[in-house]
Every structure is written in structure tokens, then in C-alpha cells.
Amino acid sequence: MLLCVSLQFHLKLQSIFIKLAGRIMAFINESLGENQRYLFPRDLFYKPYNPYKEPIELYRWTVDWDRDVFIISLGTIGPEQPEYFAMSWCKKVIKFAAYVHFEADENVSHASVRKAHATVTWKITSLTIPSALQAIREEVIQLLLEGLDAMGNSNSRREGVDTVKVIFT
């Protein structure tokens, strides 16, 4: 409990410093620390199609501290299958599935993506918005679009990505 309160105080202080610096914070990609693992309760965030709700292993996330929203990967169930994600906002979890396509100008491997001029296309195949957020569905979708743009590719890497496209099917 003390760790949670301490982290919350640190995050509030960080938010105040950012606002004082005259900037509004938006989505950013960050590595996750051990002290942030409590944010992902096992009953909400688990590997897709796993009857035992096996917990996910997270190392990176896309987060907007000011709006209290984050996007994480939940994983995939196999090759040629979509990847599953969760976006948490207003203490509600929005889940979606997407195929993520990476296209570079030249023959660039994923290892050298930071030097590439790439386009990432997110093809959203399913989107589950909780009933409590249905009245503000357009805001939820706008937030999702902003988050995916900041995320870049599905590994939360924006480096080398010039364009992010999102298609809902």
C-alpha cells in the first residue's frame, strides 16, 4: 500500500513539473518498472484466449499520465493471428484486436527500424468498449487513435516510423 501511495505521489509531482514547464503531456512510450506491475490486475489483463487467465509479461507501454490512460499489448494466439491490446481509461478497460503491418521505404529489417522511414498500418478487427463508455464512444476512438499514433508499432517503438495509419474493419 505504501508503495502504491508513494508512486501516486511521484506521478502527481511529475505531472505538476511538466505543467509548470509549460508543456501538456501526451502519450509517450515507456519501459515499465517493477513498481508499476500492480496496475495490471490479473482478472482484467491476461493473455488472449487463455482459460486460466495467465498473466501477461509487460516491459513497455504507451501512457498519457495527464489523462490517466494507457495502452498495452496482451499478446497473440499464434502466427497469422491478430495481436490483442487493452486500453485503460476512466478505470474502464477497452480491448481490441489488430493486425499490425510494417512497411519501410527500403529493404529494412525490424532490427534497423530506427533508421528506416516506415509506415505502420493498424487494422483494427475488433473493438470492445464497455457500456459505461458507449455514450462517449467517439472520444474513446479518438483517444485510441492518438495512442496508436504515439505507440508506432506494436512494440511501443515510434523511432523510424514516419506515418501511422489506423483502419477499422
TrEMBL record:
Superkingdom, natural source: Bacteria
This protein's name: Uncharacterized protein
